[in-house]
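Supplementary Text 2. Reproducibility record for the structural model of the 138-residue chain.

All settings were left at their defaults, and a single model was retained for analysis rather than an ensemble. We include the record here because the model underlies the residue-level annotations in Supplementary Table 4.
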Amino acid sequence: TSSKMGLDEDLFVCDSSSLSPYICAICMDVAYPAVVFPCTAEHTFCHGCVNVSSTSSSSSSSVSTPTSTMISRCPIDREECRNKSLRPLSGLSLRVYSSLRIICSNKCEWRGTLGNLPSHLQGSCPLAMVPCTQEGCN
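Retained model, structure tokens:
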């Protein structure tokens, strides 16, 4: 399994300038799923990248940090953001993000919008990984 969080820009069927507002500064891919950090600039990251950063930034602490706790400083501008939560994209930003044209990340023949990718991967992708139903299978 890959530790990659975001989606490669090569999967998108659009101009790279359309993707630039959604590039995660941690993995440098298109943020997926995209969340907005509560700093003044509202930087966008992959939800998983911010959680990974949160886990690694608190590893020196003797207290175990729950995965729902996020890092307290923005990874880009280092702005303090204690007691604030990550939020999903919304409004126009969400509409533009969801309508980005993409090919299937499993490389099947499907083409559609980023907003429809999860339902494709979970429902109709012929190349999607499926759990084994055999007893004792890993």
